[in-house]
Amino acid sequence: PAPPGNITEIKEIKNNAYTINFIASPGNVLKYHVTVKAANGNIINESESSNNNIIISGLTPGEIYNYTLYAVNGNNVASESTYVTLKTPEKVSGAVQIDPLANLTSTSVTITWQKPNEPNGNILGYIVELFSNKSLILDYNLTCSNCSHMIPNLKPYRNYTINVAAINGAGKGLSSSVDFQTHIGKYDKLNKAIVLPSDIIGIDSLDP
């Protein structure tokens, strides 16, 4: 039989499982065979189907794979192979891991986080959001590898929440949150003398 054509669609149907659609071979075809290899050459999956739609499991979103497809006719004769290199579609990333907060003062804090264990694609950056009383105060869009960021201009002795999420080609990923309270601020000492009105000051003179 003639070899199958190129892959026309890769679509995720559930976690790490995808449907692979490709152009069918003309003529009498009993089945199709697909081998999927990772970029390092390791075989990820081998599957067969009686039509030009095959379910492949074990794939990761946003990864490049090499696909080898061939057709087999009723006489068990295989066609030449078709070779395709494609990237699986990205989906929003998993949550980042936030480290314990550092350098917490009455007016600032430093937050550090780790890349998601499931990036599900190429991480383009991160969004950091600061909330107080459930109201968004500010947000940052950051690009970093070893990610650490100091947030200044906080109010003393106030409760805050920080959300951090990774961004890839599919958009904003799952957020991780941390709650904290800034320290009590130091009050300025009063250096000015307090002068009371003369009409409320009484001075008694006591004879010895």
UniProtKB/TrEMBL annotation:
Domain Fibronectin type-III: 3-91, 92-185
Pfam families xrefs: fn3 (PF00041)
Gene Ontology CC entries for this record: membrane
Gene: 106075805
SUPFAM superfamilies in alphabetical order: Fibronectin type III (SSF49265)
Protein known as: Fibronectin type-III domain-containing protein
Domain of life where this protein originates: Eukaryota
